[in-house]
Write a structure and sequence with these properties.
Neutral Protease, domain 2, hydrolase, globular, 2 domains, binds asparagine, metalloendopeptidase activity, Elastase, domain 1, alpha+beta, five-stranded mixed sheet, secreted, 7 helices, binds zinc ion
Length: 324
């Protein structure tokens, strides 16, 4: 959304001035020169340089091509730091390697994606009309989490495992927003939210987008992976914040359970910690929602104990989305 001042780590450029290479985390942010996502290679595009080390102009549809770049560069750093400081994870593959981050991918490409083969983040400029959200914190956290998932559980991108893959990206994408706690991008349970509505997805009642599932059913795996993810996202919300109505950072949420129960939340940091352990220790490429329940209960037991309030909340939240 290109709002607010951000601080970035840069490197002196060979020819003088500075370039958007993060000396701490290793990522380099480049202009894709409008090459399409399918044609991009890590070596494509052009590095940004600045003689002043002050980047961009904060305008939404900026003529300055470094405006999107500085947000992408900063938000990649937030994502890296979230994983490092929360889980001790050293980059997407846990090997310290920094990604290549592209801005201005394609023409009016209203999307973003992670590519394992390129080890690249790719972000478009939006559709040219609505607020571009491709370099926002939760979107970049979401996409880079696809890299983390493929390096760990490697959840297959179809059926229920595909929904779990997408939900994992929504969960950690949102958690990066909570971690960064930027005043111009207030932490929330909305995904791909802009400075003004609409949001793309939400956690408290995923079906409010008209497509996503609130509750597990035997056919949920037939939905698009961005909608079968609703079951996992709803579980995450209920385990974190509990059921019912609540105002958080000025947004009203109302999360109904699917079984008439009342769930008490344990806070999103604990739930994210449980989910990370479930993803990296217990889930596999074919894990289903039922398997995710088992994986997260194993993780909760490891972290907090079998008789803990945390274990009970995880179990209650899964039952509340009809995963038993
Ligand atoms: N933005 C989409 C996503 O991460 C693109 C994709 O790879 N499916 O879900
Ligand atoms: Zn995704």
């Amino acid at each position: 959304e290109y709002t607010g001042d951000v601080t970035v780590d840069t490197t002196p450029a060979a020819g003088g001035g500075y370039t958007l290479k993060d000396p701490v985390r290793g990522h380099v942010t480049k202009d894709a020169d409008n090459i399409s996502a399918s044609s991009l290679k890590a070596s494509s595009g052009t590095e940004f340089t600045s003689s002043t080390n002050v980047w961009g102009d904060g305008q939404k549809f900026s003529a300055d091509r470094s405006t999107a770049a500085v947000d992408a560069h900063a938000n990649t750093a937030w994502t890296y730091d979230y994983y490092k400081n929360t889980f001790g994870r050293n980059g997407i593959k846990n090997d310290g390697r920094g990604a290549t981050v592209f801005v201005h991918v394609g023409t009016n490409w209203d999307n973003a994606q992670w590519s394992d083969s390129c080890f690249c983040m790719m972000t478009g400029d939006g559709n040219g009309t609505t607020d571009p959200e491709q370099v926002d914190l939760d979107t970049m956290g979401h996409e880079m989490t696809h890299g983390v998932t493929s390096a760990t559980a490697n959840l297959r991108y179809s059926g229920e495992s595909g929904g779990l893959n997408e939900s994992t990206s929504d969960i950690f994408g949102t958690m990066v927003e909570w971690y960064a706690n930027n005043t111009f991008d207030t932490p929330d349970y909305l995904f791909s939210d802009q400075s003004t509505p609409p949001w793309l997805r939400r956690f408290d009642k995923p079906s409010l987008d008209g497509k996503s599932a609130d509750c597990w059913s035997s056919t949920v795996g037939k939905l698009n992976v961005h909608n079968s993810s609703g079951v996992g996202n709803h579980w995450f919300y209920l385990a974190s914040e509990g059921s019912g109505s609540k105002i958080i950072n000025g947004v009203t949420y109302d999360s109904p359970t699917c079984n008439g129960s009342t769930v008490t939340g344990i806070g999103n940091q604990k739930v994210a910690k449980i989910w990370y352990r479930a993803l990296t220790v217990y889930m596999t490429s074919t894990t289903t929602y039922k398997g995710a329940r088992t994986a997260s209960l194993n993780a909760a037991s490891d972290l907090y104990g079998l008789n803990s309030a945390e274990y009970k909340a995880v179990a209650a939240a899964w039952s509340a989305v009809k995963v038993n």
